[in-house]
User: What shape does this take?
Amino acid sequence: MDNQLPGMTTTPQKRRSGCLPGCLIGVLVLILAGVGVGWWFLGKPVMAFTKAIRDITRIEELDTRVSNRASYDPPASGELTEQQVASYLNVLKGIRSDMENRLETLAEKYEELGGEQPQLLDIPRFAEAYADVIGLLGEARESQVNALNAQQLSLGEYRWIRGQVLAASGLTGEAADFAGILGSLGGSSSAAGTPAATPNDANRELLTQYGEDLKEYGALTMLGF
Assistant: This one.
C-alpha cells in the first residue's frame, strides 16, 4: 500500500559523494612523504652519526688485542736499529696492503671533515663522510694490530720507533697522533701532533736508505699510524 500523500512526489535522495575519503588519502600520502623526506635528510644521517660515535669506542678497545703487552724501555742513546726500522715499515706495509685504494678515500674524507667531529647543524651534510672516516680508521687500526702481532712489537716500542723516525725525518709537527685523531673525531679533544722526540744524527743516517719507503707510506703517517 502506497502511503504517499496525494499531491506529493518522491525525489530520490542523492548519494553523498563528498571528497572525504580521497582527501584523507591525499593527506596521508603527504604525511608519509614528509616522514620519508625527514628520515632521509635527518633521521638517516643522525643514525649514521650515532653509530660512528659508538664505533670510536670499539676502535679504542682494539689496543687490547696486541699480543706483546710488555713495557718498552728505549735505549739511552735514542738510536734505532735496522730491525726496528724494518719492523716499523712492515707494519705500515701491512696496513696499506689490507686497505688498498681505500686509503685515498680515507685521506680525502678526513680532509673534508677538517679532522673534527661535525657540529650539530652540519650532521645532515657530513654524517656520511664522518661515518666513512670512522669505519675506515677502524679497518686500518685492525690491520695495524694484526701487523704489530706479526712483527711481535708492543705498542710502546712501536710508538717509540715511530717517534724517532718522524723526528729524524723532520715530520714530527706534521704527523698526527692516532689517539688524538680519535679524540678529535669523538669531540673530546683536538688532534695533536706526535710528541716531539729529539732528532738523532745516527737515526738520520740510518733512514737515508729508507727515504723512498717512508715517502710511500706518508699518508699513513699523517693519519697517526
Observations:
- The chain has a mean pLDDT of 76.
- DSSP finds nine helices and no strands in the chain.
